[in-house]
Structures are given as C-alpha cells and as structure tokens.
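DM from R.C. (forwarded with permission)

"hey, sorry to bug you on a friday — could you get me a structure for this? deadline for the figure draft is monday and I only need the backbone to look sensible"
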Amino acid sequence: MFPQKEPISWNIDQVGYADLDGKAGFKMAIHRVGERWYLYSALLWEPGFVILDITDPYKHRYIKHVPGPADTMTFQIQIADGKMITAMEAIPDFLGGHEGPWEHEGFAIWDLEDPENPRQLGVFKTGGSGTHRNYYDGGQYVYATGLPDGYDGHILQIVDISDPENPTEVSRWWREGQWLAGGEGGVSAGTLLHGGAYVKGDRAYLPYSAGGFVILDISDLKTPKLVSDLPFSPPFEHYIAVHTALPLQNRPLVIVNSEAILENGAGSLGYAGIVDVSDEEKPRLISLFPLPEPPPGAPYMRIPTIARMYSDLMPRSVPI
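My reply, with the result:
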C-alpha cells in the first residue's frame, strides 16, 4: 500500500524541492542568463511572483518575493527576449472579488537585464477586467487572452510592446455573439478563449473552451481571419472543452486537452488528444491519449466505469 502523501512516479527522479517561503506556486517560467538559470513562479493565493536561482537543481537559492497589486490574480508568466509578461486579472465574485472598475488589470511588461531584480517597464490595460493566459515568444507582439469591457467571455487581443512603456492594441478577435456592446446576442456558457493563443508562423491556434478549437490566419495582424474551427462539446466537458492547443513544430499536429470542472464532486470526462491540421480548413481529431491508470493500492480514485466505457469506444488513432 502507498502512504497517502507519498508521490508516485515512473522513470522520473525528484532532485530538489522549493517551498517558496510557504507560498503556493502556480505557473512558472525559466530564464537563462549566462551560465545561471532562474525560475520565476507566479503564486496561486496571493498576487506577485517569487524568484529562485536553480543553476544547481539539487540546491536552489531562494532570492525574493515580488509582491503584486492587491485584489488581483497574477497567475501567469511568460519570458522571452529578456522580457517577462505577467498577467493581471480581476478576482471573480465567487472567489471574493468585487465589481469593477478595476485599477490593476491587463498585463505588466518587465525587463530582466538584472534577473534578480526585475524592472517593470509598462502595463497594458484591456479596459475591462484584465487578462488570463497570454502568449509571448519574444519580439514585438503579445497575444493576450483579455476581457475588455463589453464582451461575453475572454477574447484575443494582439498587443504591440515595441514601446514597452506605451503598449498599444493592434487588433482583436472574438467568436460571433461575444461582443455584447456591439449588439451581439451573447454565447453559450463557457464560450471564451481560455488557455491562450499559440502562434506558429502566420497561424494562431486558439483553445476556445466550449467554443472549440480555432485556427486563425494572422498574416495581417491588423485583421485576423478565421481559417476553421473544430467543436469539442459535445461530447466532451462543456465549460472548458478545449483548455490548451499546442502545435508541434515539425508536424501538422496540435495537442489539445480539456480542463475538468467538478460539480458536487463529479465532473464530465476530461481528455487529451491530437488534432490533424494538415488540411487546416478541415481539422480532425485523430487520437486520444489513454486514461491514466493508478497502480494498485494507490490512494487515487479510478476513472468511473461509465467514463472508461465511453473512452474505450473512442478511436485511439488514425494513420496520417
């Protein structure tokens, strides 16, 4: 039998542990400066982030906690080209937040020339309740998952940060129905950009939750255009049916997954799968990853029988 708190792993060895000074870590990013490696971890239950020197992973060095603005979620961090992007999102009512307007929202831009003392360069504001997950891989543009005022759910906002003290929005894209202020009628629950765009060449891959998997043509950043979409709900989890869409670099495949939402201790079947985008106007789900099987005696619940039966009926793979 496994003790309740003992981790279970296969072919993986833990080499270190950081308690983050008693804080709960969340999203992370690693930054290399010369021969040193730094880990920046956002925090779950309080705003801000912590910095660690992990050059020696067996014996890390805790550097500091950088506080964030009060009453704000700062879950997300991206680092590239010596810059760091940290999201700021209003705390929702059900987590103890308050009605707007919100002073601290959008995302902050940081300079990491001194990796142990980040310097904030500027802030982009959505004009609403902030950003959730954003995409930045260096260069001039941030692809923000924003919630500007007047929209039903998060949308894509493309932001130019070439002047980081004065970031400017280049364009935005949303699913039909989201622009309430423009007279659109709203969308079904959960139709919102959630996991953030992932950019590959002149395409942006969007995980649009209940709105499915979306491919955008961004060859003209001022006018993003829909190439195609692929619904996932039904049959999968409705609210966050597509949480992440991660394209592989050398093959026309995109890894997708859901996020389970529990209701009264139970939730819809989650999944992770692969979408073939070789014909990008007709993307298709070609396989599902197998459901995890805890070892006998492990203190984890097994997948309910009905969910397992459903999964077993789904195709495992189709040659491409």
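R.C.: lifesaver. The helical segments are 305-313.
me: no worries. The chain is about 5% helix and 40% strand.
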